[in-house]
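User: My instructor asked us to take a sequence, write out its structure as tokens, and then describe one feature of it. I'm not sure where to start. Here is the sequence I was given:
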Amino acid sequence: MKIFIQNMVSLRCKLMVKYQLDKLNIAYKSIELGEVELVLPISPTIKTVLGTALHQSGLELMDDKRAMLIEKIINTVVEMVHHTEERPGLNFSNFLSEKLQMDYQKLSNVFSQTKGVTIEQFIILHKVERIKELIIYDELNLTEIAYKLHYSSVSHLSNQFKRVTGLTPTFFKSLKKRKRINLEDI
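Assistant: Let's start with the prediction itself. The structure tokens for your sequence are:
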């Protein structure tokens, strides 16, 4: 049995879910971003208790198929931008279609209607947040960041960064106070 969890976008979230499952003695096979595969189905009472515990951590159990689809799209984007080092062999629309086994146009329409932004805009927002993170870490130069995040050039990265933030990456790096947005708030 699978359960779907909204706002589960980081390792910290996965650890919180694991903690709650262990605390309630709920056996599970795997915990992935937005999704937990349980060994056995759980009772409605246990599901309610789990939902309450997760809610206190900012996470939500989901039953709505549309909401679950949106969460799968979000988690795929987060995984691709923040947790994957390798270059995808396909463009993202094909990658997303294959991963979720659905037509990209349908995914795009549902996402846009629900979130108010396109999947492409959502990816760009996440990439800009990842760029900020990498600039702050100061371990990679802009050329390396552009390559790591699959930009065709530093110029493309810089233009997109400036369009979203109003700042150049170089100016952002020079700021003393660097404000970033929580992934959960994008």
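For the description part of your assignment, you could build on this observation: Residues 114 and 174 are 37 Å apart (CA to CA). Try explaining in your own words what that tells you about the chain.
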